[in-house]
Amino acid sequence: MYLLSEEQLAFKKELRAYCDAEIRPAAEELDRAGAFPRSLFARAGELGYLDISFSPARAGAKYGALAGTIILEEFSRGLPALSLAMAFRSACRQTTARPPRPLARAVSI
After folding, report:
1. What percent of the chain has pLDDT over 70?
2. More confident site: 103 or 15
3. How many CB atoms lie within 10 A of CB 107?
4. Of 13, 17, 19, 71, whose CB count within 10 A is highest?
5. Domain 6-108 in CATH: superfamily?
6. pLDDT at 90
7. Across all residues in the chain, what is the average pLDDT?
8. What are the distances in angstroms from CA 63 to CA 29, 55, 107?
9. Distances in Å between the alpha carbon of 72 and those of 28, 82, 95, 100, 104?
10. How many CA atoms lie within 13 A of 36 on its CB side?
């Protein structure tokens, strides 16, 4: 079993407080309206919570795999759709950040 460090637990607590204050209050209305949480997504970006890399190949991301998992877990407590959008964005960034393979480069030219 893996136990989080004190620093990771503090980060989780910080995220939980943010989600409880900012995301959960808006979640019910967004779900009812079937709306995408654009302002919450933008705010997550401003706070750096979208800069997640689950791949060691993409160096320079603010948060690695473990911190990214903590972020997505806490955001999903507040609004699962927001967490899903964040995970999808991270996956797309990692795919597009890789250099193209020779075949892909030839096809795209």
Report:
1. 78
2. 15
3. 9
4. 71
5. Acyl-CoA dehydrogenase/oxidase, N-terminal domain (1.10.540.10)
6. 77
7. 83
8. 30, 11, 33
9. 19, 9, 19, 28, 31
10. 6
Give 31-72 pLDDT, tens digit per residue: 899 888 899 999 998 998 988 877 765 666 788 888 989 999
Beta-carbon-side half-sphere exposure of residue 53 (alpha carbons within 13 Å) = 14
- pTM of the complete model beyond 0.90: no
CA distance 12 to 70: 6
The amino acid at residue 58 is R
Tell me the C-alpha to C-alpha distance, in Å, between residue 100 and each of 17, 95, 96, 108: 40, 10, 8, 10
The answer to whether residues 90 and 68 touch, using CB atoms and an 8 Å cutoff, is yes
| CA dihedral sign, ordered 92, 96, 97, 98 | positive
Q: Any idea what DSSP says for residue 62?
A: S
